[in-house]
Design a protein that fits this description.
mainly alpha; 2 strands; elongated
Length: about 100
């Protein structure tokens, strides 16, 4: 699919890009090549191909979901400037 100069100017306007006259012809050729590639990929027969979540069917090895460290809230709050009912008290920052 070949783009016209007006198409490239319209795309540049929609994207709010300032494109020089010399660059428009270059972008016209490059964007036309991209659209030709997309048309070529769309022409490929994919009717009997199942979609994949991952191309290699890799399975991620996960560690067991186990508690590895105990609750140390009281130990950490002993050095805090102010706490109440297990929560840290901080100065008000929004009035």
């Amino acid at each position: 699919m070949a783009l016209e100069r007006s198409d490239v100017e319209n795309i540049a306007g929609l994207a709010r890009l300032a494109v020089s006259d010399e660059a428009i012809t270059q972008y016209q050729a490059e964007l036309s090549k991209i659209l030709d590639l997309v048309a070529q990929m769309n022409a490929a027969d994919t009717d009997n191909i199942e979609p994949l979540a991952h191309p290699t069917d890799a399975v991620q090895r996960l560690r067991a979901d186990m508690v590895t460290e105990g609750n140390q809230r009281e130990k950490f709050q002993t050095v805090a400037p102010a706490t109440e009912a297990g929560c840290y008290l901080v100065p008000k920052v929004i009035e």
